[in-house]
Structure formats: C-alpha cells, structure tokens
Amino acid sequence: MKWDLNYKKKKFNTDRLVTNETSLIVRFPDEGTYTLAYQPKRQGVEKRKEIPITVQVLNRPPSAKLTPDFVKVLPRKKLVLLAECQDPGEGDRIAQYQWDTNYDGQNFKARKKGKNITSLEIQAPLSGTLRVAMRCVDNDKGIGKEAVTLIKVVE
Known about the structure:
Layout: E1 2-4, E2 17-18, E3 32-39, E4 51-57, E5 63-67, E6 70-73, E7 78-86, E8 94-100, E9 112-114, E10 119-123, E11 129-138, E12 147-153
Parallel strand pairs: 6-12
Antiparallel strand pairs: 1-2, 1-3, 3-4, 5-7, 7-10, 8-9, 8-11, 11-12
C-alpha cells in the first residue's frame, strides 16, 4: 500500500511512504485539518486510484524538557534529572511523565511512569555513555516527543 501524508488533489506523491501495512499511525505537528491518501494494492491493474482521507487533529501533544541535557560525570556518580512539561492544548493538563532510563535513541520504553515524577535520580555507568529520555502524556492521551539527556562518563 502506498501512502501520501500530504496529499494534494492534483498529484499523488508516492515517494512519501510505501508499506505493507493497511493502517498507519501518524504524528501531526499541529491542530488542524490534514488530507492523506492511499493507493490500495490491486493485482493486474495498471492505473491505481488513490483514496483520500481527511483527518481533523484536535489535540496538540505536550512538549518535554530535561535538565541537564548533557553532562559529564565520574563513573557511578549519582545525579538528578529535572523534567518539565507544557501542554499547548486548550484545557489539557499533564497526566503522566514517562521515563526511559536506557534510551536507544529510537525506541522509547517507559520504564518508569507516573503523574508526579518530575525528577529522577540516575547513577552513571562505569564507562561509556547513557541516554535517558522523558516524555509527557496529556489527559487527552496526546504523547509528546522525547526530551533526552546524554550522560558521558569521564575518568
């Protein structure tokens, strides 16, 4: 199946996204109306007809900030990370702070989560670097982009 995530009615842009999936999760940057389109797989048909979908986005996700965002520490040193969340949505509030204490840079795994976990004590590893990520979830289940702290161990 081919998807165009910014469909203009004159031309279907097939270089946007091609996948075997029939469903798709998309993060939209702002509230508003977006038009997507997809071309279903049809065997033996030369010309594919795109099917447009209009999406109304009502909830903007919250934003996250971690302090510090980069720190050099001695091996096994303990440090405290401070989280800050803001939600631009009207009437929205932060429902949950989620922490990934071993973030790989791509796949967020909420290892710690809770309504009031605005700080976290971390112990640095013996060597190398450690990424800690935090994201916010609002009461409408909007999930914000991760804020990341890079902890580099120096000797």
